[in-house]
Amino acid sequence: MSEMLAVYQKHLGEWLPQLIDAAGNTLRMTALAFVLAFVVGLLLALAKLSPIAPLRLFASGYIEVMRGIPSLAILFLIYFGLADFGLVFDAFPAAVIGFGLNGAAYMAEIFRAGILSIHSGQTEAALTVGMTPLAAMRWVVLPQALRVVLPPLANFGIALLKDTSVASIISAPELMLRARDLASSSFRPMEVFLLAAAIYLVMSLPVSFLTRRLEARFSRGQAHV
Amino acid sequence: MLFWERFVDNLPYFLEVLIPAAGMTVRIAAGAFVLAIVVGLVLALLQTIRIGLVTLVVRSYIELIRGTPVLAQLFILYFGLTEVGIRFTPIQAAILGLGLNGGAYLAEVFRAGIESIHAGQMEAALTVGMTPLTAMRYVILPQALRVVVPPTTNYSIALLKDTAIVSAVAAPEIMFKARNLVMETYLSAQIYLLVAIMYLVMSLILAFISRRLERRLGESGTTGQAGAA
Question: Does A168 touch chain B (CB under 8 A)?
Answer without folding.
Answer: yes
